[in-house]
Automatic annotation (TrEMBL):
This is FAD-dependent oxidoreductase. GO terms for molecular function: oxidoreductase activity. Pfam families: Amino_oxidase (PF01593). Keywords: FAD, Flavoprotein, NAD, NADP, Signal. It comes from the Bacteria. PANTHER family: AMINE OXIDASE DOMAIN-CONTAINING PROTEIN (PTHR46091:SF3), BLR7054 PROTEIN (PTHR46091). Coiled coil: none annotated. Signal peptide: none annotated. It comes from Acinetobacter chinensis. Residues 23-339 form the Amine oxidase domain.
């Protein structure tokens, strides 16, 4: 996305101001603008799009930062309906991934494809784990009923929404807010079967002992019933078109505009102030920024109840991801179908593995111990934009492909560097060595899925 740091004067009063230019902020601003509200969107970075933007290397390789696939983009899908209502019908095209397995889970003993349709998914699971048919049927029955009962047209926080969900899900509704791990225990699934049916927890960054069943069910339902899709042209087409909608309806998008404060007077919002002191007035502010920074820094604790502040302070971010972006001098369509791979190299509990190697458990290990365990057990999510969008010539040179391998890692600074707080560690030898070893591990996961691919890395 282009830099919109703005040269002309921005007017001072707006009907609504949106903070944060990721897809959530952009779509919010677009809907406000198309409904007659003069809307200003403020983004602190030099481009909008958040995880939907792309970056280029050596002017010939283009990588998507965060758009790997999107669910329910068919003709009557949720996202399609939203885009159509913004006047973007036919402006954004989506390509459907492999129907027989949009995701493929590979463990030491099994290769399980996740297809479209709950019955097809169940059949694949039973074929892989025939001795566990009873437990698998229980799991899919509960998870599918909860997934199909979710009505995205209403908030489940409302009494009507909750009631409707409970009626539609029936007896399965009692599981909705229980941890996924409790449901797995109830179904008495083996360690490897548990891994296969819960491996997607990395997509929402919360291990099964903490993630509610409704979260996992909603994610699976989105793909299994709605299809797994990829936007042709890459994730940037979403942000680009949303910006056009905002500006076409009298709104404005500004980059390099970091909000310092949300201005509050007499318990009412009346505007925002940027870091440089520039102020804009409004009666409506929507923050699509970090929740802690929004309430603790921008709004200010003096304007909020103490109980609410304690709750916000206790929020913890999920573990971050490390991404390895690879350029390959081969056409990956000759190596893989249009699927994503979950490469799991261990038969141990995946949840325990991620917990031990993540933010909570890594401090119990030395760096050498962590690396050794990661080489043996750390999973990876592997995908290729080139395979999903082969006609996009920006991804890679002719006959070449891009590939990404990613995994969850600890968030703490102490894990990544021995440099003093406040010092830049990008050139710190400890950090560079750790980064190199993690890169090797992520490439190793790819090699385990596609033996021989390593020799094609350029």
């Amino acid at each position: 996305m282009m830099d919109r740091s703005i040269s002309q004067q921005t007017k001072q009063h707006w009907d609504a101001i949106v903070i944060g230019g990721g897809i959530g902020g952009l779509s919010t601003a677009a809907f406000l603008a198309t409904n007659g509200h003069k809307t200003l969107l403020l983004e602190q970075y030099n481009v909008v799009g958040g995880c939907s933007h792309v970056f280029r290397r050596k002017r010939q390789w283009e990588f998507d930062v965060g758009i790997h696939y999107i669910g329910d983009c068919g003709e009557k899908g949720q996202l399609t309906t939203m885009l159509n209502s913004l006047g973007l019908k036919d402006r954004i095209q989506f390509s459907l991934m492999d129907a027989s397995g949009y995701d493929t889970v590979i463990t030491p003993n099994h290769k399980v494809k996740i297809p479209y349709g709950w019955d097809n998914y169940l059949n694949n699971l039973i074929q892989a784990f025939p001795q566990e048919e009873k437990g698998l049927r229980q799991f899919i029955d509960i998870i599918s009923r909860i997934g199909m009962a979710i009505d995205r047209s209403r908030t489940p926080a409302s009494l009507w929404g909750t009631t409707k969900f409970a009626v539609n899900a029936g007896s399965a509704s009692v599981w909705a807010m229980m941890p996924v791990s409790k449901l797995l225990d109830y179904c008495r699934l083996s360690t490897e079967a548990r891994t296969v049916v819960s491996v997607q927890f990395g997509q929402y960054g919360c291990i099964p002992s903490r993630a509610p069943v409704v979260l996992h069910a909603g994610l699976l339902q989105n793909y299994i019933s709605g299809g797994a899709w990829y936007p042709l042209g890459g994730g940037q087409v979403l942000a680009g078109n949303l910006v056009e909608v905002i500006e076409a309806h009298g709104g404005m998008v500004r980059t390099q505009a970091k909000v310092d404060r949300i201005l509050v007077q007499n318990n009412k919002v009346h505007g925002v102030r940027l870091e440089g002191g520039e102020e804009f007035t409004t009666s409506t502010v929507v923050s699509a920024a970090d929740i802690k920074k929004t309430y603790l820094n921008m709004v200010g604790v003096e304007h909020l109840p103490s109980g609410f502040i304690r709750k916000v302070k206790n929020y913890k971010m999920s573990d971050p991801f490390v991404n390895v972006f690879l350029g390959l001098n081969t056409d990956l369509r000759e190596w893989m179908p249009n699927t994503n791979y979950f490469s799991v190299p261990t038969t141990e509990s995946l949840e325990k593995t991620v917990a031990i190697l993540g933010s909570e458990g890594h401090s119990e290990l030395t760096t050498d111990q962590w690396i050794k365990r990661a080489r043996e057990t750390l999973p990876a999510f592997i995908h290729s934009s080139t395979v999903k969008d082969p006609d996009n010539k920006r991804h890679a040179p002719a006959g070449c492909s891009t590939l990404e391998s990613m995994t969850m890692v600890p968030a703490s600074r102490e894990f990544w560097t021995k440099a003093a707080q406040g010092q830049n560690y990008s050139k710190d030898n400890y950090y560079l060595d750790l980064k190199e070893q993690l890169t090797e591990i992520m490439i190793q996961r790819v090699e385990e899925v596609m033996p021989g691919i390593k020799q094609h890395i350029v």
